Amino acid sequence: QIIMFGTTLILYTKSEKQITNITNYIITSCVILIFRLIVTVPVSAWGSGTRIGQYLGSGQSGGYGNTNLTYVLSLGAIFALFKGIESKKKKYYILVATFTLFSMLSGSKKSIILLFITLLLTMILTSKNILKFAKMLLISSISLLVVWYAIMYVDVLYQSVGFRMEIFISYFNGGETDASTLSRSDFLLQGI
Predict the structure, then answer these.
(1) Arithmetic mean of pLDDT, 144-157
(2) DSSP codes of every residue in 143-162
(3) How far apart are CA 47 and CA 8, in angstroms?
(4) Between vectors from CA 103 to CA 101 and to CA 105, what angle results, nearest 5°?
(5) C-beta separation of 118 from 125 below 8 A
(6) d(CA 107, CA 104)
């Protein structure tokens, strides 16, 4: 999906201004999506282990799909991060944090891992010199530890994604895991 989006963006845009407009539209659509989530998802579903994507429209499992929800919010977070780095405006960093939080509440392990890897790489690779690179690496590492701590010890986040991350990690330790992790590992083994 990301490759198709990027290719389409390159093929159908003629100027940097058009790309800027598209990224602004995506960020705006993510803000609207969050407002829709706040209005649509019942209060009892937040942090209860319920996958919030099921409350939006039709799609996978009768809803928008948790993975799709996280993909959209992740893309918004990445574009907001680029805008924040480029413009040096703090409001974009607030959007990154907001989009990331709502992505975590979707409960999609795969998308959340992809989001954090992309955000960390973006922060590190956009640093201009070795000192800024080291600083961004340190900030990224501390941010990752803070987020991991929050996922594991803040009840709302733990019920949304923390317990799923524990199950995912237990797969590598030889423990019990869920059907999602087993099916993905089977796909990988078949592909190899």
Answers:
(1) 82
(2) HHHHHHHHHHHSHHHIIIII
(3) 36
(4) 70
(5) no
(6) 6
Strand (E) or helix (H) holding 114: helix 109-125
In the block, residue with structure tokens 């959209």: 72
Rounded (5°) CA angle 140-25-21: 95
Structure-token pair, residue 66 = 């948790």
pLDDT in tens, 42-94: 777 776 666 676 666 654 455 556 667 778 888 888 889 888 888 888 899 89
The helix (run of H) or strand (run of E) holding residue 178 is: none
Q: How many Cα atoms within 13 Å fall on the side-chain side of residue 170?
A: 11
pTM summary value: 0.69
Q: Is the dihedral of CA 84, 119, 77, 50 positive or negative?
A: negative
The phi-psi region of residue 57 (left if phi > 0; otherwise alpha if psi is between -120 and 50; otherwise beta) is: left
Backbone angles phi, psi at 13, to 5 degrees: -115, 140
| Nearest-angstrom CA–CA distance, 175 and 191 | 23
CA-to-CA separations, 64 to 60, 123, 189, in angstroms, rounded: 6, 30, 29
Measure the CA–CA gap between 95 and 186, rounded to whole angstroms: 36
